[in-house]
């Protein structure tokens, strides 16, 4: 499950790790497109964001949940409940 407070802590940790090293470091982040929560705002305003945010409408994708190994192949994918946001954070100006 996605917990807004945990998502914000994740973004803060990634920003701190990116700032703390001169070694190349990048993160691809996939989260629900909950645009009003602090984590979303932190991701969109991160100085390490290297590309435009991609939002995938919920009807255009699905996902494997954690029990996919226990499901029949035809039942492995679940429809997404939310639009999904994709972010790239990197300390390299040209991305990873």
Q: Can you describe what's shown?
A:
This protein has 96 residues and is α+β, with helices and mostly antiparallel strands. Helices cover 25% and strands 24% of the residues. The chain contains two helices and five strands; from the N terminus they run αβαββββ. The strands form two sheets. Strands 1-5-2 form a three-stranded antiparallel β-sheet. It has a two-stranded antiparallel sheet with strand order 3-4. The radius of gyration is 15 Å and the shape is elongated. The chain starts with a helix and ends in a 6-residue tail after the last strand. The model has no long low-confidence stretch (mean pLDDT 90).
Helix content: 25-40%
Averaged pLDDT: 90
Shape: elongated
- Helix-strand makeup class: alpha+beta
Spell out the helices and strands N to C.
Answer: HEHEEEE
Head-to-tail CA distance between termini = 28 Å
How many β-strands, per DSSP?
5
Main beta sheet, described? 3 strands, antiparallel
Strand content: 15-25%
Biggest sheet strand order reads 1-5-2
Which segments are poorly predicted (pLDDT under 50) over 5 or more consecutive residues?
none
Report Rg: 15 Å
Kindly list the characteristics that best describe this protein.
alpha+beta; 96 residues; three-stranded antiparallel β-sheet
């Amino acid at each position: 499950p996605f917990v807004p407070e945990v998502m914000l802590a994740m973004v803060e940790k990634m920003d701190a790790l990116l700032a703390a090293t001169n070694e190349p470091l990048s993160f691809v982040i996939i989260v629900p497109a909950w645009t009003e929560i602090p984590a979303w705002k932190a991701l969109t305003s991160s100085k390490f964001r290297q590309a435009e945010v991609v939002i995938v409408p919920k009807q255009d994708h699905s996902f494997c949940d954690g029990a996919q190994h226990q499901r029949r192949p035809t039942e492995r994918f679940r429809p997404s409940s939310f639009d999904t946001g994709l972010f790239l954070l990197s300390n390299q100006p040209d991305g990873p």
